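To whoever picks this up:

The nightly regression suite flagged ABC transporter permease as changed. Nothing in the input moved, so I suspect the structure step. Input below, exactly as stored in the fixture:
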Amino acid sequence: MIRFSGRLRSALIIGLQGIRSRKLRTLLSMVSLFLGVLAVVVVQAGASIAERAVLADMELYDGFDGTVVMEMGGSSPKVEPIVLDTVAGRSDAVAMTGMQAIIGEPGVRPVNQGGGSFDDSWGGSPMICDEQGNCREQTPAELGPQGQAIELRLTALTGDVRQFRPYRPQAGQWLDFTSVPMMAPRLVLNKEAAKGFDRYKVPAEMRVPGASANMTPQFVGVVDDGDASPRAYVRLDELTQWVPAGKLVDPNMGEVRVLMSSGTPVEQVLTSKLKAVNIEPYVHIVNSREEQESELALMRWIFLAMAGLVLLIGVAGILNVGLATVGERVEEFALRRAVGTPRALLAGIVLAETLITGLLTAALAIGASAAALKALVTLAGDSQPFLQGVEFPWEAGVAGVIAGLVAGVLGGFVPAIRAAGIPIATVMRA
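Regenerated output under the current build:
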């Protein structure tokens, strides 16, 4: 063990001396290897950032991994009281009910009829359904003339849903569930709805099916919820000031959803109550990472294969430089053999040079990638939410170090064998 450690130390010292005495050749080796190691580091870092971007978009709509989601149709009048009574006052569960709302001039047809995106025109007449689920197209008389009004989906919340879905604030503030309910419902718009109200000037008058009268809403904020359709969020207790019990679930929408923490008793209680009235809920646990794992892994392997090809070019470069260096140092190695230097130590000297070169190159590639990522986050972090708070992934650093070591071993293996095979008689010819 002592002999091995001594040889290792000798190989490292002589290898460092060789690098110092041949700076230009070492620099050429590092240049040929730098792009290969950089490609591996960039691919690994890019895969981590791409995974973060994919999951960030999915979390907006599906929720954080581990969130329990219960969905059920809203056509039955029994759904509303069961759901709202069960989650009332709970901090580990939030109910979301959806309905259509029109904000603007009364008695007119909205500019985005049907509540679609403001950049799309789907055509056709919207459908209307009764409490039994029977649907039909609205007649021209029911639609009214074209006017200054915007149709959107109105989602009523029993609590702060951001503990399950990380809506990104864009302007203003989120709903305050700790304050006293107000008669003028406070709305938080999504980006598509905010675009519509910025494009069209409409009166602040909101009508909701089943409401006792039209309301005057207050816009308090804008969030990015990942929905391409206009949507607004409102506190359920503020909406009940105008919409009577039994009308909070719109049969035209059928949107009733409960988000819960894992392990909460709400799931079991709510499931039992719904099944007692012949309503079968659909329950699933959000696991976006596992669902996207195969696609992300395939993408990562494809780019790693491409980076591996670039790395092989760097290995070929360091191999050529290593063979040329050994050819120039034949007399030196023969002399070392003549004074008793073991063949293993000669091979270790050559491998030490290539390994040190590989590690230095890996350090430069990792440093360059980390600096580039920091600059990207600084410049584009505000416009790209998934870049906010991104740090250089340690997996990319480990991949860079491994790539540098592998390149050093592959590029120095053949020169090391050649150096170890130089005969002692060569020194006599020098």
